[in-house]
Amino acid sequence: MGENLSQPFEKSAMSKDERIQLEREKRIQITAFAFMISLTLLAFIATGSEIIPAVFTVPFIVGLAVIQFFLQLFYFMHLKDKNHAWPNMMMVSGVFLSTPTIIALALLLGETKF
Amino acid sequence: MADNYANTADKSVLWDWLTTVDHKKIAIMYLIAGTLFFVKAGVMALFMRIQLMRPEMEFITGQTFNELITMHGTIMLFLAATPLIFAFMNFAVPLQIGARDVAFPFVNALGFWIFFFGGLLLSVSWFFGGGPDAGWTSYVPLASREHGGLGIDFYVLGLQVSGIGTLVSGINFIVTIINMRAPGMTMMRLPLFVWTTLVVSILIVFAFTPLAAGLALLMLDRIFGGQFFIPGMDGNVVLWQHIFWIFGHPEVYILVLPAFGIISEVIPAFSRKRLFGYSAMVFATLVIAFLGFMVWVHHMFTVGIGPVANSIFAIATMAIAVPTGIKIFNWLFTMWGGKLTFNTAMLCASSFVPTFVLGGVTGVMLAMAPVDHLYHDTYFVVAHFHYIIIGGIVLGLFAALFYWYPKMFGHKLNEALGKWMFWLFYIGFHLTFFVQHILGLIGMQRRIYTYLEGQGMATMNMISTIGTFIMAFAVVLLVFNVVYSAYKSERITERDPWDARTLEWATNTPVPEYNFAQTPQVRSLDPWFYEKVHGDGTMKPAEPLDDIHMPNGSILPFMIGLGLFIGGFGFIMMNMENPIVPPLLVVILGAVLTFGSMGLRSIKEDHGYNIPLERIKKIEKEAS
Prior knowledge:
Keywords (chain A): Cell membrane, Membrane, Transmembrane, Transmembrane helix
Strand order of the largest sheet of chain B: 1-2
Oligomer: heterodimer
Order of helices and strands of chain A: HHH
Membrane topology (chain A): Multi-pass membrane protein
InterPro entries (chain A): Cyt_c_oxidase_su4_prok
Mean pLDDT of chain B: 92
Main location (chain A): membrane
Shape of chain A: extended
Largest interface: A-B, 19 and 28 residues
Distance between the termini of chain A: 68 Å
Low-confidence stretches of chain A: none
GO cellular component, one term (chain A): plasma membrane
Order of helices and strands of chain B: HHHHHHHHHHHHHHHEHEEHHEH
Shape of chain B: globular
């Protein structure tokens, strides 16, 4: 037991179907990544250019952030995949806990008293 | 190579303990480190009580008193209670779920050493112009760069470092409990201590991250000229309070939920009954954990956030009493009609219940926002949280110590001495803290270092101090008990000295490094009890007897911790008047040590080692 642990594998142990699956997965990842970069670029352009008014910029960027958030979770952190019940549970409870916290902080730190 | 059998007995004792990744040894190191910090903070409490013994005492100065309250609170919560709880988690959780070790043994050792060096960093503050003095909450502007001394830097960096250790251990426990359960050990068959450990680890991940963020902001403010908490520069001081209590309130549950778990193990074992309402207990644990995140503003009722916000958080706080009440009644019903054995562990566990209720009642009182203006920052609050922490957590830890001691060290603690300790501690505790409720109500503020004659506080403060000395004597008795039992107590070789219910009692005593020669098949809740009653008294194996693959020990966790210590100290040196060496050099040295060790860990091949079959057979034969 355990003599060949340091030897590299010559050939992949995956079947052809699995390799095709992996290729597709890779493509989706790169597409999602490119899309997210472009969203970020849009956000930079919105703040950087002086033509676009601030009234538009703020809700626009918040909207982009929401899209980014879901892209991150589902594509980069694999929440869309099967057998991710536990990570899903942790992520959802994290969102569940942090949302009221952020809202409360935003309200309580403002000038208005409730 | 994996086949080179590296026996831990081949190493020298010191090297073995420095490099160990065995969860049982790490548990003992947590236990020792936690006890040392506990005694240290306890002595600080004694000094404070001596100072408050009589009006206008001049035992210590106000400045020293401030440093003592800060260090007492910080050490007790971060460096005593947390590691002591981690000690029992580390020891019991893998055994209770039928695993050979935690999921990441290396990370487990890393968590311990980072915690340890963080604690050390906080502690060396005494040698560099005095400890932190802004209270364990370290509110700004008191802790800002304008008003706070060098001690605050030690607080910030020390907690930052030890917080990383806690976070790392928390993640490790989550993975362990989710992935390492023995066949048949479904989630709803987990012992309650494992359930609370899982929930607490999730709380750690969610609560220690805001603390790390807050401490980072404070560090930027203090050392690098930031302005997050400086009102004159568009900062906000209330932000710190929010961040601190978003962490701080879950921290209370991080400490008390494992105690709940311990009580839920000890009471059924010594009542000879299964835990009453198991699923309700699990549910209550989850609800407490969730609500624990929604109540942080009740620490800030007097800040002036407004009546609507205060009401919401007051009601949310009171709601926590419901799941806690479920737990209290379940413990009572477990004992109801049971065949009770009152040894020291059970005394601690059963007296936990009424004491914790007392602390809970004052908690609901404090939750009422309008009256809180009266209680706020008085000794009433001090009495309340000491009832929770000592009456809850410390009694739970004592119960755990007496309960698991035979498994951990191979002999029981002396029962006569144990009972003496318990009664002295219990009486001393109530003497110390019950009168503090009344002291608070007649207007004694917390964190004051003296009071005047004729304010009606002298007698009660005297009683409180006497109680503290009785408690201290009880702890000395416990230490004596440990030493005495080590020499005099009978060695235990049987698996199950308490006739208990859960899986850890199915292992040999002392527990071999691989825990279970064959992974057990779990067939019921309380699996060991089930096999004793319905089976043949041994666990059914889930796998054939074979070589066991174990992880190698490593010095790298120690080096990473040391690197963080040196790096943290370098950051603190940036605020020192005339540092002997350039601070940046020290920071770089620390970073090289830490990241170098991490790199080494990534590059170096380490496949662990195998314990050959013959050796396992020999160990098992000797034990049975």
